[in-house]
Amino acid sequence: MKRYQREIVKYTAVICFTVIFSLIVLPGIIVGLYPQGSGEKPPVPGQTQAPGPDIQINVYRHESGKVVSVPLEEYVKGVVAGEMPSTFEVEALKAQAVAARTYAVSKVRRSATGNPAEHPDAPLCDDVHCQVYRTEEELKKLKGDQWMAEGYKKISEAVEATAGQVMYYQGALVEQPLFHSSSGGKTENSEDVFTSALPYLRSVDSPYEEDAPHQGESVSISMATFASKIKSVYPNAGTISRDTVKITEHSEGGRVETMKVGNASVTGRRVRDLFGLRSANFTISFTGSDIVFTTTGYGHGVGMSQYGANGMAKAGFGYTDILSHYYSGVEVKPVTAQ
């Protein structure tokens, strides 16, 4: 009889421990698994869960200087509307939605170690520093009722059709799903434009860009202005003339890697920034006292070409085909808590 009493006491103790662990200890572990960010503000409810239609994310609005809480899927709609024309094919809009959602979820998760210095109270902002985001009210004011009834409806349906879907590379959430307007026929390796070499941001052909604008655009700049701007950054460049300016190296994607300008070695990206060129995919020629840049494509050229995505959609490719083409080795699947 005493043995049975001891067994009852033992099992009662186990049950009590399990209840205490479930009510007190386990929530603390879960919070540790899903960090809640580094800001002093209380976390937004749901921000640590696997993102779905109801999760709220924090977005810094530049015009008001305030942080707002936005449902994730509504945010994605506002980004797709801000970043891609609604006239694009539905499959291209879906691809853009998945890329935008992946970027947002990645930024929210990384906010556990701190937000960007440009907006320290939120992981995301509403301009090109992150992704262009517009609310329904702002879009209605900007584009009108008819666009809302047609364009926004089309975008909303594309976002809803991919709700919760993001990109993974070898089991890890993709952190930099970069995109640009058009590549001019071939995208870039990430390290040829930015600092890091990312395995899913490899140079690939982008053959479906026939409808892309900004092809073969020419910009003429006087040699005096060109030399002055170069010397403002490279004061020891020496003599700059048509005889001392030439392209010396191209990237794998075909953009200008480096130029020799006088005594200075200048990257194509720096030249693009200095002179406001559409892309670093350019050639140079000389007319009289001017240097002429002829550019093809628009943007940095890394990741998904939006016009290439639209061309692929027109050719019958689905959004997962588009994404796996421009982001090497990725899988598109529902986001998981991690």
How is this structure best summarized?
The chain is α+β, with helices and mostly antiparallel strands and 338 residues long. Helix content is 37%, strand content 20%.
Describe this structure in words.
40% of the residues are buried. A hairpin with a 4-residue loop joins strand 1 and strand 2. Helix 3 crosses helix 9. The N terminus is likely disordered. The radius of gyration is 26 Å and the shape is globular. The protein is built from 9 helices and 14 strands. The strands form 5 sheets. The chain has a 3-stranded mixed sheet. It has a 3-stranded antiparallel sheet with strand order 5-4-14. It is of the alpha+beta class.
Structural class: alpha+beta
Largest sheet: 3 strands, mixed
Low-pLDDT runs of 5+ residues are 1-53
Q: What is the helix/strand order?
A: HEEHHEHHEEEEHEEEHEEEHHE
Q: List the strand order in the largest sheet.
A: 2-1-3
Helix content: 25-40%
Strand content: 15-25%
Tell me the number of helical segments per DSSP (H or I, 4 or more residues long).
Answer: 9
Supply the key terms.
338 residues, alpha+beta, 3-stranded mixed β-sheet, 3-stranded antiparallel β-sheet, 14 strands, 37% helix
Write the layout of secondary structure elements.
Layout: H1 2-33, E1 56-61, E2 66-71, H2 72-83, H3 90-110, E3 124-125, H4 136-143, H5 145-161, E4 165-169, E5 172-173, E6 179-180, E7 215-222, H6 223-233, E8 245-250, E9 256-261, E10 264-267, H7 268-275, E11 282-287, E12 290-296, E13 304-305, H8 306-314, H9 319-326, E14 330-334
Parallel strand pairs: 1-3, 6-13
Antiparallel strand pairs: 1-2, 4-5, 4-14, 7-12, 8-9, 9-10, 11-12
Helix pairs in contact: 2-3, 2-5, 3-5, 3-8, 3-9, 4-5
